[in-house]
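Subject: Interface between my chains keeps coming out wrong

I've been trying for a while to get a sensible model of this assembly. When I model each chain on its own everything looks fine, but I need the whole thing in one frame so I can look at the contacts. Pasting all components below, labels as-is. Any help appreciated, I'm running out of ideas.
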Amino acid sequence: MHNTLFQRTRTQSRRLAIGLLFGAGFATLTGAVAETVDPQYVYNSSLAATCASCHGTNGVSVAGNRVPLINTLTHDQITERMRAYKDGERTGTIMPQIAKGYTYEQIDIIAQVLGKK
Amino acid sequence: MNRRLFLGQSAALLGASAGMNKLALASTKTKAKVVVVGAGYGGATTAKYMRMLSNNGIEVTLVEPNSDFISCPLSNLVVGGSEKIAALTTPYDGLTNKYGIKMVKDRVTKIDAQKKTVTIGDGSTLSYDKLVLAPGIDMNFDAIEGLAQASRDGVALQAWKAGPETVALHQQLADMPDGGVFAIAIPLAPYRCPPGPYERACQVANYMQQNKPKSKVIVLDANPDVSSKGKLFKAAWSDIYPGMVDYRPAHRVVGVDGKNKTITFEFEEALKADVLNILPPMHAGNLVKDAGLANMNNRWAEVSFLDFASTQAKDIHIVGDSIQTAPRMPKSGHMANQQAKVTAAAIVAEINDFPVNPNPVVTNTCYSFVDRSQVVHVASVHQYDSEKATFLPVKGAGGLSPEANQLEGIYAWGWAKNIWADTVA
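Reply #2:
Try treating it as a single job with all components included. I did that and got this:
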């Protein structure tokens, strides 16, 4: 199950990237098209949305915010940092404690969704 | 990966051709209607993420009597006077303008779970396919003799829902004579925001230190000890505010005499105070309670944790402080925002006839200000456990700040601005 979740994220990431490209207008644009909702898009986006409470919707921080930015990082950079936090190889205030709660598969999916394209 | 392969895999997930039929049907039927009641951290986030995750395929109506979102987190800074309530206020416009959510500025007066309608204050009804209730908490004033009257008279305030009462409580602190006593009474857990009362004690002491140095905060806690971040708050009280915070555990308030500003206890001698900030026991929002959905001891609403559906009524979901939480899951704004995303994803799945995510995860992050700039945090991560059908905190994850620090004071404001935007903008 986890494995297939992970494999599907490329498509899902692309859709999210399109969403980000259109910014606020994306909701209205896609709303006009009768489109089937992809289960994988819903699962993966809602998992990545657990990060949004601190780092902003779709990983985009409010301007001038001093919470470290994550939307400037690529998939590999997010994965690397989260794994390092989880494995105790990177220090921080809250992130070492948060990262330990996620599985490696979940970290990969989050990085696919939020990583800079 | 191409589109065709992607669809093929989705179908496999759903169980061969039956899944494909369901998908085909989902795309042709008229838009499902979801009504959300309450636009706080739980309700507003659910509304927004249902729109996002369904690619606007769901019509969402959000019923909320207030015109702005006012954050409870950080509102102790307003009580202490270092911030104004305007700094914690965000208008709801973005939910309509950016996400196409229909806002109805009213209260819900009645829920008809059979007809699947809600009645609002002006007497009209809204029909729904799914209903999401996020009314937060309400308080049991009758649990403390005299409190209902003292609260109506404005003598004993709670200020546990941010807004005019928060400002009024600061005014009482500002009007208090130097050498006065500010009493904070805390009910037995569970209540909204476990560290909140202790953070408030810090902020009130901070104001006193700068403006009325002979004054005292007396914390009357029905619990046997500080419910959250205990060592960190106690360190702040002894190091930053020596002699100013008098913490009294296992003090259960049973009565309030508003005229004489006197608090009476189960066992201890009565206490006179200048400001009475008395928090009575709390329960699910009255909307949930009156609809018979607070089915855990007639106090909190039991939900299925995969989709936050009420165990009492079909097609009604409940998020935020009204629910009977999973083990060690706090009633917090951050947690409500997290529950909202699980709920939104599950409702999108249910409406589109595909399985809900079997492995949801939620986190909690809570920053408390011990003075105007230093902060302590508590964090946790809760993974869904399918065997126990609940969220369980991940062992080895989460934890506390080692000590109060300025960096997390900066992060706390960053957290606030981002979660406010994530919830309502």
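Reply #3:
Confirming on my end. Chain A touches chain B through 48 residues (CB under 8 Å).
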